[in-house]
Amino acid sequence: MASNASESAVPAIAHPTPGDSFGVAANIVYHSQFSSRFSPFKFEVEQAFYATAASVKDALVQRWNETYKHFHEEDPKQVYYLSMEFLQGRALTNAIGNLGLSDAYAAALTKLGHDLENVREQEKDAALGNGGLGRLASCFLDSMATLDLPAWGYGLRYKYGLFKQIISSKGQEEYAEDWLEKSSPWEIVRHDVTYPVRFFGEVQVDSDGRRKWIGGEVMQALAYDIPIPGYNTKNTISLRIWEARVPAEDFDLYAFNAGKHEEAVQLQLKADQICSVLYPGDSTEDGKLLRLKQQYMLCSASLQDIFSRFKERRGAISWDEFPNKVAVQLNDTHPTLAIPELMRILMDDEGLGWDQAWNITSSTIAYTNHTVLPEALEKWSQVVMAKLLPRHMEIIAEIDKRFQVLVARTRPELESKLEALQVLDNSNPEKKLVRMAHLCVVSAHSVNGVAELHSEILKKELFSDFYSLWPEKFNNKTNGVTPRRWLRFCSPELSAIITKWLRTDKWVTNLDLLSGLREFAENKQLQEEWNAAKLANKVRFADYLLKVVGVEVNPQTLFDIQIKRIHEYKRQLLNILSVIYRYKTIKEMSPEERANTVPRTVMFGGKAFATYAQAKRIVKLVTDVGAVVNNDPNVSPHLKVVFIPNYNVTVAELAIPASELSQHISTAGMEASGTSNMKFALNGSLIIGTLDGANIEIREEIGEDNFFLFGARADDVPRLRKEREQGKFVPDPRFEEVKDFIRSKAFGDFDYEPLLEALEGDTGYGRGDYFLVGQDFPGYLDAQDKVDETYKNRAKWMKMSILSTAGSGKFSSDRTISQYANEIWQVGQCRVP
Ligand code: Z57
């Protein structure tokens, strides 16, 4: 088993190169010997992981230094992606894969008595994000590095990332997850990169009328860099995450002054709090002061860093050059404070006038919207904002004032709507608010949605009047996912087949080449190989479920998966209600009829926001249904229901390649894009879904025959909701039957009434079945019948599966990022020679 590293007959330190597994082994041994985790008596799998990661990090840091040296010399325009979330997952497989060192590391570890498969399992997910928005940011970093763009990601270094989900008999329970417990092997602390960040205080006016923000609490932001390697390129960029600190000098100063010791301790606590925890809301508004502090920490530190880089490269400063050297993309409204902060720096620190500062700010900043759900649109109290950031509140009020003047001057007919359009919402004098999305739309030069339908809804509904003012600002950038992590590395089996049939592996960086598979979609040989790869992935996932979750699933059954945050609009409830209907149906069948059904394993995974009661009830219902169905000896050979606990990036990497059918069944108009739909299609999983978000474009690309479509159209939703409220809706008897079955306590005596109640038209809240579960139920059952019928025809299913992959080329984040670079950022490639 594990060998003693000091006994290995390998030469001392060498740089890892593809052909040289001895050199790689030596490098690992070197790191193991100088690692605090290493004991000369053992070199076990955990030590092996940290030593391997340290060795890989050497290679990354070397490339990373070269990359930024090159950027510095070439001085191109750079892009800065500001995001409160980066959902990175594990890094080892990705790093060695991108470096082309997978085989070398596998061989080296074998020499050292280890197995790469086991070693990589040691790594904890970096879960500094909640869901789609955070994972998108991480896919974008991978593409920006791979496309040789001079780019940086900026985020926060939360101590606790997304909570760990444990499923007990009570349902979901949340536990803190300290991803830094054993330290992260990838980050590099940059004690040379720190900036002061101020909170509270007041605005002072100089004799010359210049305003200055002074006083308050001053903390320090300390940079940590995580290297992000591109695929097949030396370019390695950086995800820079900030940690809040009290500078040691300050602390000592206070500490030696006896009376102020307490104050020093308090400030330290406040600093620790800022980066303590990721807010775990996904599409939920969270109006907490601490969250606003986090947002400002990100914006202030990142902009200071951007300014210092801008200044460093030019002696005499021409501020109008700034937008030619800097592009800032805001990932949702979470980093909106970058707007008033940029204005403040330009005016108060650099002495520019409003108009010049405004032109620079708006040409620099671009905004991406990720949701139209009203409860997810950030609004901050003006009182809170004025207290925490007095100068920013002044600037925001001035932006609002000038916006009103502009509308009055240029579009008097909008006068009546002005209040609803303003940045400041003063409609309730007790609770005056800042509408962060309006601030973004008014200030940025680009506003984009994340799928065609979503971008249309932004123009026609959410921001329609802004669109009439500035049509040129609005654009679409359909999301994408990185084909490295989401196909090449998570399914090496399928990747090898694709490479074999396309006779090239160029598809990894040119995903459109996948369309070359179309001509072989009916080829028996390909279908057989395809089926075998999918089956291998199913077996691997079944092993995981048995080992980690303790449930037995049969890899010969249809693997049907819905994994995403639990939300009413995503309609996991629709899925489980149809499962209940299936259970009832199978239960009532004769043994002969049962033998004729398509056996299915229906799997759910996802986290519910801790205080989102309905979402948690849905989780509970799924597990309760599973307990009954899986233990029913007549039914369980034909149907199993599994809740996969603690869904995260690593679980996704196992589940997606194993999936044959995936569910993307949101109420039309509510899912901005979805990105797992792209990952599933890419992996040959067929989609059952509504005409929502990117589903529409996926269906267009892979062909409507290869997509199980059902449900109301986005255009019809408002009318259907109204009809529902007016009691005009006649429910399908099967819908009523399923609800009655739950009410009969068939799945235990947990109180499901609040869930069932919300499905009725007359809740008394005027929001009866807001998500149209009852409306879409019959169409959904029909679509599921079609799934079964199709699955019985293996050749047909395989053809559809191959065509799903073949049609996924558009959904590479390389395509998305190229569009951002060309159409929004005007940033070109800068490749390290
Ligand atoms: C989040 O993950 C998304 C939107 C939000 O407003 C917040 Br807050 C978090 C998601 C959307 O729900 C998905 O539809 C979309 O694919 C994803 O962002 C990336 O754009």
Automatic annotation (TrEMBL):
Species name: Selaginella moellendorffii
GO biological process entries: glycogen catabolic process
Keywords, alphabetical: Allosteric enzyme, Carbohydrate metabolism, Glycosyltransferase, Pyridoxal phosphate, Transferase
Cellular compartments per GO CC: cytoplasm
Protein name as annotated: Alpha-1,4 glucan phosphorylase
InterPro entries: Glycg_phsphrylas, Glyco_trans_35, Pyridoxal_P_attach_site
Cofactor: pyridoxal 5'-phosphate
Enzyme Commission number(s) from the entry: 2.4.1.1
The protein's role, per its UniProt record: Allosteric enzyme that catalyzes the rate-limiting step in glycogen catabolism, the phosphorolytic cleavage of glycogen to produce glucose-1-phosphate, and plays a central role in maintaining cellular and organismal glucose homeostasis.
Catalyzed reaction equations: [(1->4)-alpha-D-glucosyl](n) + phosphate = [(1->4)-alpha-D-glucosyl](n-1) + alpha-D-glucose 1-phosphate
Family per record: Belongs to the glycogen phosphorylase family.
GO molecular function term, any single one: pyridoxal phosphate binding
In-chain residues carrying the UniProt-annotated modification N6-(pyridoxal phosphate)lysine: K679
